[in-house]
Amino acid sequence: MKRAMLTAVCVLALVLAAGCGGKYSDVKKINEEYIEMVESYIAALDKADDKDDVVKAMNNFTDDLEDIWPRMQELREKYPELEGNEPPPEELKASMEEAEKVGAKIGTSFMKVMQYMDDPEVQAAQQRMGQVMMQQ
């Protein structure tokens, strides 16, 4: 699951990096959706009082992810110049910083999931999320 979350953060970084300019207006739109989605997920995890709340937050996030993930993958194919280890263009550096902040928030909130990692329902929700994120 950590690998899937890392993949999500990397894709988010790619999407954020591409979201600044006319050429990448479609990426910017998806980026805004994804950030809102991740922030809702983080808020739900932060408010979770028990494993049922955690499972609900994970499943709601995965439901949204099933919609947006294929569109994000299409953008990765459409803009291959934004992938790889090359530094982003100067005008995209601020977006990369934003991606790092969102990634840090996910990591902190994910600690709530870790509390319930032995629960079969949490494991199933995690597995489902990972399956969606591994689709290419």
Q: What share of the residues does DSSP label as strand, in percent?
A: under 5%
- What number is the mean pLDDT? 80
Write the H/E string, N to C. HHHHH
Unreliable stretches (pLDDT < 50, length at least 5) are 15-21
CA radius of gyration is 15 Å
| Structural class by helix and strand composition | mainly alpha
Labels describing this entry:
136 residues; 5 helices
Question: What do you see in this structure?
Answer:
With 136 residues, this protein is mostly helical. It has one domain (2-129). The protein has five helices and no strands. The chain has helices at 2-18, 25-47, 51-78, 93-114, 120-134. The model is unreliable at 15-21 (pLDDT under 50).
Q: What's a concise summary of this model?
A:
This protein has one domain (2-129).
Question: Topology, pairings included?
Answer:
Layout lengths: L1 H17 L6 H23 L3 H28 L14 H22 L5 H15 L2
